[in-house]
Amino acid sequence: MSKTKKQTGPSSHSLTRRCVIRGVASAGIAAPFIGRASAATVKIRLSYVVPGNWASLLFQKRGLTRHLGKSYAFEAVHFQGTPQLIQAQAAGELEIAAHAYSSLALAIENAGMSDLRIIADEFQDGAPGYYSDEYFVLKDGPIKTVEDLKGKVIATNVAGSAVDIAMRAMLRKHHLEDKRDVTIVEAPFPTMPAMLQEKKIVMFPGVLPFSQDPQIRKVTRRLFLQSDAIGRTQMVVWAARDPFIRAHRDALADFLEDALRCERWYLDPANHEEAVAIAARISKSPPSLWATWFFKKTGEHGDYYHDPNGKPDLAALQTNINVQHELGFIRSQFDVRKYADLSLIEEAAKRLG
Fold first, then answer.
1. Which CATH number fits domain 134-230: 3.30.70.270, 3.20.20.70, 3.40.50.300, 3.40.190.10?
2. 134-138 and 220-225 beta bridge pairing
3. What is the value of pTM for the model shown?
4. Per-domain residue ranges for the chain?
5. 113 to each of 35, 91, 235, 316, 317, how far by Cα in Å?
6. pLDDT surpassing 60 at residue 35
7. Most exposed: 190, 235, 248, 285, by fewest CB within 10 Å?
8. Range 227-234 average pLDDT
């Protein structure tokens, strides 16, 4: 089993206690809502890794919620990678974790969190006509094939993350293994392009929104797609612990209703320009970084697939977790359906019609 390497970014301990950061604080997502909440409301903290994940966007468009500050209060929590969510959720620092398929499996199988339940979709990679994560090399560099990575240093955000698992799966297809044939180092996504240009690494995973930066595309080319490595991916799901669900079903249903209403607003092409403005504001980046692809179905130049009813693709998730087992990251395979409770998101969708 691959061991996690020393991180170049902040520790998971510090990240779990840094509630609203990197532009989201200035947008006022979480703390003001919690401050206005009454003692009767249920606190719901939801994680995100990159700007554009739902937690960073929810409730930025005013007037869409019906229950916020009444039955629940909301807080967005930032992490460098999804594996760090396991510790945070085990410690009670997250009510809902936006788990990648990889961290979900690690939490259930390796960390013994058998009470985790999948409650909703965050996004899917490689759906027909939608975006799939790209693995970039220098446009004029020496790496032309996956085999050319042998003996080289490549980057990942966190060992065991979703993009990391897909990368390792592709390496194995080409008879390459970490430590034996390549060296894998950890780094935050925003720092990877500079590391590539400085030739500290020869490849890095490109995820949205960073991969659509025109400056990155000027100097890189795609070596392969995540879908080339592992097919369609139920990339991220929302998961909560069963005791919390049982204790707060009504508040969770209210939250999911509000969240789904917001998500559908973002997915509506009629709201594209305003959605871009919101994403640019919370990420402190120019609107041009988002305008051409955000919530659009245009293949490699578009967005991931977000289910408008919040329903995850459990069949794809099962395949993804099976790959993770084959790579040795989890001890055994398991039936993902046993860890899913979609009744709340189904209720939310029915409320909205």
1. 3.40.190.10
2. antiparallel
3. 0.84
4. 12-125+233-352, 134-230
5. 31, 11, 20, 21, 18
6. no
7. 190
8. 95
